[in-house]
Amino acid sequence: AEKIAAKYNISVRTVYRDIKAICEQGIPVSFEQHRGYFLTEGYFLPPVSFSLDEANALLLMHSVVERFADKSILKNYTAALDKVKSVLRNTQKEKLEILQEHTRFQTIHASFTDFDHLSVLQNAISSKTILQLDYKNNNNEVSRRQVEPIGLIFYAFNWHLAGWCHERKDYRDFRVSRILKVKNTELPFKKADHMDLNDYMKLLPVNY
Question: CB 3.0-4.6 Å disulfide test: which of 3, 70, 157, 197 passes with 151?
């Protein structure tokens, strides 16, 4: 309640009153210590509505995702955009279709989009679980690595996975387009404390 009050610049008393009002409307809000307020599992809010400007912004980013993300992210983003379109009014859909026909993103399709690993990598980063990689280095040598991922970085027109390599006992930079196979082992990190991604980026041979 204190965090909600601070975020929205209201009193804690107002938070309690509003939560009570929501519960009286039949929405099952529960509370747990150290977790806070949450909706009971299985309950869904009504579909989110989007303004035309919000839908236009998502449509514009589709071209960027298509060029700078991989197949897994493009698939997920397209599915999400389709859901956005499904809740728009007919007049909004017509305007969105017109805009889509009159928007182009001219660039070369590079090799960094020709894989579908990013979704798996994202899930491992957020869940702090170990990845198993079959990786080909600059010398075309293939090795299997156990990696604790700390983040994804896009630089030099390629996606790079930063992570603690169990074999090298150090942080390594893995270019995602060189990953031949990836598996989320679902096993938790073994290393207790990891370098902050911003600090790791300072070690890279690029000027941000």
Answer: 197
